[in-house]
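User: I'm writing a short methods note and want a consistent example. For Oxidoreductase, I'll paste the sequence; you return only the C-alpha cells, no commentary, since I'll be parsing the reply automatically.
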Amino acid sequence: MQDNIIDRRSFFKLGLLGGSVVAASTLGGGAVLKAAELTGSPKSLQTKSNKIRGRMFFQTQTEFDTLSAACERIYPKDKQGEGAIGLGVPYFIDNQLASAYGYNDREYMQGPFIDGKKEQGYQTPMKRKDIFLEGVHALEENAKKRYKKSFSSLRGKEQDEILRDFEKGKIQTVGFKSSYFFTLLREMTIAGVLADPIYGGNDNKNGWRMMQYPGAQMSYIDKISSDEFFNIEPVGLADMED
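Assistant:
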C-alpha cells in the first residue's frame, strides 16, 4: 500500500511485467483476467449502469460498508474514473465469497498447517470467507478502538493508517496474519476492477476503459497487421451473441 493514494493505480502501468495486466483467476466461479498492453490515454468513461445488486455473503450493512470503504482506499476514485465502489467491487467480492472461491472448493484443505514461506501459497486451515469476515470485523474493531467511529466513517488518512498496519502484519487476528488478509483484499479489489462484468464488478466495463483493454473481442484479424493504435470499445462475455 503506497503512502500517496493518487499513485495507487500506477502499478497497473509500472513494474507489473513491463506495463501489462497479468492473467489471474479467482477459483470456482471467479474472474479470468486477460493480459493487455497499456498504451495511450484513457478514454472517456460511459455513464454508470443502473444494475440492481444484492449481498450474498455479508449479513450486516456495517460489514459491507467496512469492506466497501477499505476497497475504495485501495482503488480510489480519481480523475481517471470511478473507484472500487463506483465499479461495484464490493459486490464482486461479496458474491465471490458466497461462491466456490469463498469456500475453497476443489482445493486441498487438510493438514499439516505450518507457517510457510510467501511462495508456498495458502497456509491456513481457514476458508477465504472466514478470513474476510474476520478481517472486516478486525478493521471495524480497530477503527472503534482508535477513533471511536466505524471504519467507514473515518477520514481517508485514518483508514489508511489502519490498512497500513494490516499490510505490515501489526494487527491481531485469529487464525491468519493480518498481512495475509490485506493481500487477499488487495488481490480481490484488483480482480473486481478488471474482471468481466458478468461476475459483478467492473461496472459497465469502465475498469477496462480506464486501462484501454478491449475485453472479449472475437477477433483482431482486421487490425493485427497494422502499426496503428486502436482504441477499441470493450466487449464483455454478456455482449457475445450465441
